[in-house]
Amino acid sequence: MKILPAILTNDEIDLEKKIRQAELFTDWVQVDIMDGQFVPSRSIVASHLSMIKTRLNLEVHLMVREPESQVEGYARAGATRIAFHYEATTSPDNVIKHVRRLKLGVGLAINPETPISSVEGLLDKIDFILFLSVYPGFYGKEFLPEVLDKVKEFRAKGFKMEVGMDGGIKANNIKMIKEAGVDYACVGSAVFNHVAPQDAYNNLLKL
Description:
Elements: E1 2-7, H1 12-22, E2 28-34, H2 46-50, E3 57-63, H3 71-76, E4 81-85, H4 92-101, E5 105-110, E6 128-132, H5 147-156, E7 162-166, H6 174-179, E8 184-187, H7 189-192, H8 197-206
Parallel strand pairs: 1-2, 1-8, 2-3, 3-4, 4-5, 5-6, 6-7, 7-8
């Protein structure tokens, strides 16, 4: 299982600090984007990200209403791939097509309460699925273990695509997340709130 350090901030200076830290120990990060509408909190925006040059691959996780209005900005800002929320748009199919036109990878993020059956018709059009294991929009929320059952159900149905999990992931649950069939875990506070982010990341990988 891969680990993607997850950056959630509303401060462009903090954004660059975390990106520079992550450059020391990984090739990928997830950047969380929040609009204050789909989720209560707000974060940095595309113009902040575009000012930072980095060798990192960027998974941009859009926790925003009407993500179709924002994908171009994040494509220009350097996104490698984009995850958007199924619950945030009336036409997820159109968002997928839009991201494809921009030649980026595309994934669906689904909230803890959203059943797999809601998105099965879209799975052949995307590259990865991101299971939220917290209710989105806040840093350091408590992990919801019932989401592991959703991942197991997804795997039992025979879906082979890349599976991510995002939210509340720490040393005490990372092993069970891997055992559920997750391919990559997005970890924010358990990496960046540590006094030595690289040590925290390496410890999670070891576990």
